[in-house]
């Protein structure tokens, strides 16, 4: 029996990135279902699970992607709720790569500092998809985690409360608009992470030069300029300032890629429900 | 040459159910074309038939699905009208499974009563897609066929006239809102069929207990509650009341599945135009 | 590694014609991306090129089709601009078959007259996609090229200026509404081409009978009536009037088909960017 992947996306296109990886990982067929709405999921799921017999469920799987992370989670829940033994299939969610990227980012930085427990971590752009999942993973590892928005303090704190509630963790919120304010936030931090949009520099090389404590910076944006001055996409713990080592976006991206391959391959072996937690477990062994 | 299926749907998604069955039946590639409009069909058909040479037409086929049964029929007609020898390909229509489901339902109940000719059949929810095709198939077998709506008598009779005209048959229309009215309608009936929406019970186990003549009940809805009290989805001519035997939705669904596989496999062998009649011929041998 | 084709279309469906040819030419998987907007192309391209490693770029390719020729060109440009060594993949554009059709048409007529340089060519319907690309190819071969619209002279001349500018060529514009006016335009012409919509006859057999100079007529419309009276779709330099030989739409269509196969096969061998120029080079060897 051939392996069929049903690729559900909240967007109008099924990401070619995930399509390529799924097919290369061993799916024989990948079928795009775009602009998926929550109310369509039960019907789609029943169609998937009831059409190949109980044995066929090992050869069918669901991927859920797209840029609407909340809708992705609703789709995953609906799909899961629509299944029952033995009519269950694997589900893997990774909204616009945010789960695998956050997992790779946190696993890599965690390895770099010898474990995240008790470490002070500041995540710039932490209210976006990658940032909030990274914050949740850091906090679950008992790191002292702060997300930073470029808006005002209230927005940062509200986001922290919301993220803490969604993921069952405890993170802090802050705001910073200037390099000076950002520099103040990373005093005594062990790790500074940038998950901001392309085109924004969080700290210049000059500002990083003034850092006095050992700091690791990591960026997930591969398009110049880097979120941290002097950091190149391929850098892997490169010394970029007297006290600062950097991890670039391609270094993290390569781990993210391996994690995604690993999960798609696992779906072909066993029935799994994979999300950011699964991705993080995988990333810790692959980083 | 690989076998290509062009999956045309009136809906925004190509049913994963039909996709799985088509691919498992032997199509190498299945390509989704969604939200298909009637005026697009000639262009799509010409594209399909003219791009692989006359020999290629044996390896290309069209499936037409989706919940808009009338549009499905228009698409089938347009596609057929756009072909000419030797540039013809197989076409299989099955709007939301209604044709194969109705075929399985009628073939199974027909077998249970030793042939439908002269039998009295009452179809609750007979104005929906499955119900009306089932009614047409019953009437073609010379059964005394009545469709029943939950609206008023006029609506039931008008639907019966319309269905009789569309399929060239002669069926009667009725209405029933209460269990008592429904019970009255099945007096002296040989078969009572439920093709209503999930969640509606046509007759309770208590009401079925009052039936005095031998009656077979059949339901196409697998989601509890059953259309007939005491009927389980997997039941195959199970005694559920002193005079009543029941056929459940999974029993019918399994025949429907085999019919659909049979037709997709036939499309790979010969050029066919398959609709509810083809499905019924197949179902009679598979039920 | 399997060969993946990402089929980007400006329309709501990915042409089954191009799908069939791409798959028959050797692509293992062809994935449809429909209603593609210019601003989505960078993201799609990055997804395509970054997900299989540098080696994978030899096994991924982009096809751009659809009826909006201008948008097709914008998509091609954006996709190309989003790539850099070694992360580049093949791109083949053929908006609704216009490039391969125009290439086949011009190569075939050019061969028929022993080279287009210095020849007088009149293209009826020359403002449409096939017509304007054919005009550009003729002019690049130093033919004296005139496009003819059925609207007024101003419209024809403006179109000629626009096309000359877009393709860097020099063509003339004219208008003709009656058979008499069209007959006047082809006096002393070597080639008359019809790229008009189905249902329009440019010159009747009677009018062609009055032609005194040797003339070749060619038509790309296979649906009767032919653009030239007496011309059948399969005609290959058939004498249809004392001074007139004709090339029919199927004759041109067969070359177009071979050109498209040739380009898809080339994409599997080498990284290429194929458009109407590539198609014309291929057509000259295949016509």
TrEMBL record, chains A, B, C:
Presence of the UniProt keyword Membrane in the record: no
Enzyme class, spelled out: oxidoreductase
Methylene-tetrahydromethanopterin dehydrogenase N-terminal domain location: 16-95
Family annotation (Pfam families): Mpt_N
Gene Ontology molecular function: any one: oxidoreductase activity
Xref: InterPro entries: Aminoacid_DH-like_N_sf, Methyl-teptahyd_DH_N, Methyl-teptahyd_DH_N_sf, NAD(P)-bd_dom_sf
Keywords attached to this entry: Oxidoreductase
Listed EC numbers: 1.5.99.9
SUPFAM superfamilies, A to Z: Aminoacid dehydrogenase-like, N-terminal domain (SSF53223), NAD(P)-binding Rossmann-fold domains (SSF51735)
Keyword RNA-binding included in the entry's annotation: no
Protein name (record): Methylene tetrahydromethanopterin dehydrogenase
Record organism: hydrothermal vent metagenome
């Amino acid at each position: 029996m051939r392996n069929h992947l049903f690729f559900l996306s909240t967007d109008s296109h099924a990401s070619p990135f995930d399509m390529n990886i799924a097919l290369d990982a061993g799916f024989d067929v990948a079928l795009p279902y775009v602009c998926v709405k929550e109310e369509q999921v039960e019907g789609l799921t029943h169609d998937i699970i009831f059409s190949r017999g109980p044995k066929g469920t090992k050869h069918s799987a669901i991927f859920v992607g797209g840029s609407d992370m909340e809708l992705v989670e609703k789709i995953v829940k609906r799909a899961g709720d629509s299944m029952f033994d033995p009519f269950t299939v694997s589900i893997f969610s990774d909204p616009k790569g945010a789960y695998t990227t956050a997992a790779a980012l946190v696993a890599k930085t965690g390895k770099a500092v010898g474990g995240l427990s008790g470490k002070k971590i500041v995540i710039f752009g932490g209210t976006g998809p990658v940032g909030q999942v990274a914050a949740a993973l850091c906090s679950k590892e008992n790191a002292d985690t702060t997300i930073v928005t470029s808006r005002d303090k209230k927005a940062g704190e509200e986001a922290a409360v919301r993220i803490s509630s969604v993921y069952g963790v405890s993170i802090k919120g802050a705001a910073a608009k200037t390099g000076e304010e950002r520099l103040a936030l990373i005093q005594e931090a062990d790790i500074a992470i940038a998950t901001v949009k392309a085109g924004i520099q969080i700290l210049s090389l000059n500002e990083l030069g003034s850092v006095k404590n050992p700091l690791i910076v990591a960026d997930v944006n591969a398009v110049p300029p880097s979120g941290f001055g002097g950091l190149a996409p391929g850098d892997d713990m490169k010394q970029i300032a007297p006290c600062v080592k950097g991890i670039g976006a391609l270094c993290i991206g390569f781990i993210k890629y391996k994690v995604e391959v690993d999960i798609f391959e696992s779906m072909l072996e066993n029935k799994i429900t994979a999300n950011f937690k699964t991705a993080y477990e995988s990333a810790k062994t692959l980083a």
